[in-house]
Design a protein that fits this description.
The complex is a heterodimer of chains A (178) and B (323).
Chain A: E1 3-5, H1 7-25, E2 31-36, H2 40-55, E3 60-64, E4 97-105, H3 109-119, E5 126-134, E6 146-150, E7 157-162, H4 164-167, E8 171-176
Parallel strand pairs in A: 2-3, 2-4, 4-5, 5-6
Antiparallel strand pairs in A: 1-8, 7-8
Chain B: H1 27-44, E1 58-63, H2 69-80, E2 84-89, H3 101-110, E3 115-120, H4 125-132, E4 136-142, H5 148-162, E5 169-173, H6 180-191, E6 195-199, E7 215-217, H7 220-224, E8 229-232, H8 248-255, H9 259-262, E9 270-272, H10 285-288, H11 295-316
Helix pairs in contact in B: 1-5, 1-11, 2-11, 3-4, 5-6, 5-11
The chains are: A alpha/beta (178), B alpha/beta (323).
Chain lengths: 178, 323
């Protein structure tokens, strides 16, 4: 299991992304972060902390569960049917810039589902996308605005992101799938 | 390399096409439905109360008995999941022309619905259809057998208020003989580890009830004492031809849930009723509308629980793959 990002590397990437968000949006006014469950949620919270350190402003965060919007749910199952969990967006997304946060960007299908789910909550001014890892192989016309690390992969490989909050450790590994 | 213990994969799907009874379900499956219902409840609190999950699926609500609450609840649940829904009610169906249940079902089946929600006055009607239909069958009440989604929404409401079901004293009052709600609730509550008391007139207690692992009594005081949950069952006036008790007035005096009786339960007791209520028969209006009543929460939670059941059954088996 070669480690491609360790705790330091993840932390530096998130800090850099926070700076890029401030630069691109000229501050954090009217911005909110929404993490895609599961691992996008702690990542969104970490970026919010970094944004608070940089700007002194608190940025709202939410959690989005995309299970009910998946396009493979009722088809031949790729894996086990995922557990549906609550979406928690305790603020209005209308006319705000929403920064969607996910751990791995791959086919783009999760992001497509997340965009549909988000838009059911209102009409944001803009949606920008953060991915800790972009591993390529897009199947939809979707592109991240902020990337922690670009990792060229083959489709036989799999990327595993583990985070302290959920997995007890911070690391990104690349594995040969069986 | 560390020896990694593979944890037992938590259950995330119902690997079945039908929901016929609580008796079929494991405690783990029941908890999966309740957990999924929590996420579904959030959908119902949004401005746009609709998700695309069951788009392109057809669900037929086939009701051979009158129902307002259950049919409406299923229909709202189906619509919130974007299923196409269709209601077949007895009065307007070919049943009045003499068609049998099986023929009606086979004709609906020929139009390839994904699921059929069935209410029927005969116990076992859902089991019969589940064997002959490719569509998933959801039991919305069959005769005196079961009403599984009612028990699930009751458990959801108890868990929402009390944080758990296990270890609670749940006292159930009323017609213990004819009630499918009772049967489903007894099975579910005992599976989840509640201490269940049932109470009613001796003429409405079926023999062998005590063998289901519950306390059976004719004393309202014994049943209600320190109860965490008081669950009323409807006195089914249409089934009271047999002279089970002298009069409704006498029933209310002896078994009706009054404020005085509620005061003997725990101070944070919740009062439940599956509806429709007979005010002044099994329950006093002051109790039904009082501070301990969660009767309307039950109705609200019914939609979330039925969404969870529809979702979990739809994903459990790929109905249309073979169509």
């Amino acid at each position: 299991m070669p480690v491609i990002m360790d705790a330091d590397r993840i932390s530096r990437a998130l800090t850099r992304i926070a700076h890029e968000i401030v630069e691109r949006n000229r501050g954090v006014d009217n911005i909110a972060l929404v993490g895609v469950r599961s691992r996008g949620v702690p990542l969104a919270k970490r970026i919010a902390r970094a944004l608070a350190q940089i700007t002194g402003d608190q940025v709202s965060t939410g959690a989005l569960d995309i299970t009910l919007y998946r396009d493979d749910l009722m088809r031949h199952q790729v894996g086990p049917q995922p557990l549906v969990r609550r979406t928690e967006i305790p603020f209005s997304i209308d006319d705000r810039t929403i920064i969607l946060v996910d751990d791995v960007l791959y086919t783009g299908r999760t992001t497509r589902a997340a965009l549909d789910a988000l838009i059911d909550f209102g009409r944001p001014k803009a949606i920008q996308l953060v991915a800790l890892v972009d591993r390529g192989h897009r199947e939809l016309p979707i592109k991240a605005d902020y990337v922690g690390k670009n990792v060229p992969t083959s489709q036989q490989e799999s990327i595993h992101v583990r985070l302290l909050e959920l997995d007890g450790t911070d690391e990104v590994t690349i594995d040969r799938a069986d | 390399m560390d020896a990694v213990q593979t944890p037992k994969q938590p259950l995330t799907a119902l690997r079945r096409k039908d929901l016929l009874s609580i008796a079929d379900l494991s405690a783990e499956e029941i908890l999966l439905i309740l957990d999924t219902a929590e996420a579904m409840k959030e959908v119902g609190q949004r401005a746009i109360k609709k998700v695309p999950t069951l788009r392109g699926r057809t669900v037929v609500n086939l009701f051979f008995e009158p129902s307002t609450r259950t049919r409406t609840s299923f229909e709202i649940a189906e619509k919130r999941l974007s299923a196409d829904t269709l209601n077949v009610a007895i009065g307007t169906s070919s049943v009045v022309k003499g068609e049998t249940l099986v023929d009606t079902a086979m004709n609906i089946e020929a139009m390839a619905p994904s699921m059929i929600v069935l209410r029927h006055s005969s116990s076992g009607a859902c089991h019969l259809l589940s064997r002959i239909c490719r569509a998933g069958i959801i039991n919305a009440g069959d005769g005196m057998h079961e009403h599984p989604t009612q028990a699930l929404l009751d458990a959801y409401t108890i868990r929402e208020r009390k944080g758990r079901v296990s270890g609670l004293k749940v006292a159930i009052f009323g017609d213990l003989l004819h009630s499918r709600v009772l049967r489903s609730n007894l099975l579910l509550l005992t599976k989840l580890g509640a201490e269940v008391w049932v109470c009613g007139p001796a003429t409405l207690i079926p023999p062998g009830l005590d063998r289901l692992g519950v306390h059976v009594t004719t004393s309202v005081d014994d049943a209600v004492r320190d109860a965490d949950v008081v669950m009323m069952l409807r006195i089914q006036l249409e089934r009271m031809e047999g002279g089970f008790f002298p009069s409704l007035r006498e029933y209310f005096t002896t078994f009706g849930m009054t404020e005085a009786r509620v005061s003997r339960a725990k101070p944070d007791v919740i009062i439940m009723h599956p509806g429709p209520m007979n005010r002044g028969v099994e329950i006093a209006s002051e109790v039904a509308d009082g501070p301990f009543s969660v009767i309307l929460d039950q109705v609200a939670n019914g939609v979330a629980v039925r969404m969870a059941v529809l979702y979990l059954l739809a994903g459990g088996v790929d109905h249309e793959a073979t169509a």
